[in-house]
Amino acid sequence: MTSTVECRRLAVSLNGSLLLPETTFTATAPGLIALTGSNGTGKTTLLKTLAGRQLPSAGECLIDGEAPYEFAPAFRASVASLIDTPPMARDMTLLEQLALVQVSWGSDEGTAFRAAEDLLNQLTIPELGERFPYELSAGQLQLFAVALTLSRPFGFLLLDEPERHLDTDRVQVLLGLLESRVQSGALVITATHRAEIVERAEQTIHLERPSEPE
Q1: Whole-angstrom Cα distance, residue 150 to residue 31?
Q2: Is the pLDDT at 210 greater than 70, yes or no?
Q3: pLDDT tens profile 62-104
Q4: Cβ neighbourhood burial of 98 (10 Å; 0-12, 13-18, 19+)
Q5: Is the residue at 214 inside a domain?
Q6: How far apart are the first and last CA of the chain?
Q7: CB atoms closer than 10 angstroms to residue 209
Q8: Between vectors from CA 84 to CA 81 and to CA 87, what angle results, nearest 5°?
């Protein structure tokens, strides 16, 4: 289980453009951390760096004392992320795909399908279990993406605006699920523009737009 994330003067540049200005913070599990800032301030870049998918240009980021590296087995086993849209099989039902994720992380088939059904119930979309991804609305697809991410075990969860396309009621459902994971000991960092998520977070990391060079 991830316990502590420390970033010290972390910055990311690419082809001469500053994607993430110097950022310093510490976050400790369990907790719900809101990552805020206007578009272009580096929220997604920070999440990718924490996920071990983006190398810093300056400073450092340590997760339990080690630099994040997505190909390290122990890191991969502990960290789940919803940054880009996850792969979705067109010809498998939602229930089948959620169960497949469970099985790939060690569950037997019966347990996997029960857990998949339970997760759809928690997201208030049990009726969608036998549908295919191409039959869903934008909001339903977003809930399914969240479900795919939450189907696997993790100690550290990274989310990039998981509330997009969701109405107010479903945002509250999402919040309830995230808080239940925190209560189970997880550290959750989510980029968000929704005030209700920020208000329920134990900590807020606010990013400012990178300064233009003079």
Answers
A1: 16
A2: no
A3: 999 999 999 999 999 999 999 999 999 999 999 999 999 999 9
A4: buried
A5: no
A6: 44
A7: 13
A8: 90
Q: Which residues contact 204 (CB under 8 A, 6 or more apart)?
A: 33, 34, 35, 36, 198
Q: What residues make up the domain containing 176?
A: 4-206
Q: Domain total for the chain?
A: 1
Q: Would residue 212 count as lying in a domain?
A: no
Residue 211 inside a domain? The answer is: no
Residue-wise pLDDT for 113-152, tens only, equals 999 999 999 999 999 999 999 999 999 999 999 999 999 9
SS3 at position 117: helix
In a domain, 87, yes or no: yes
CATH of the domain at 169: 3.40.50.300
Please tell me the total number of residues recorded for the chain in this structure. 214
Q: Does an H or E element contain 62, and which?
A: strand 58-63
Residue holding tokens 């347990």? 111
Q: In this structure, what token pair is assigned to residue 29?
A: 């599990």
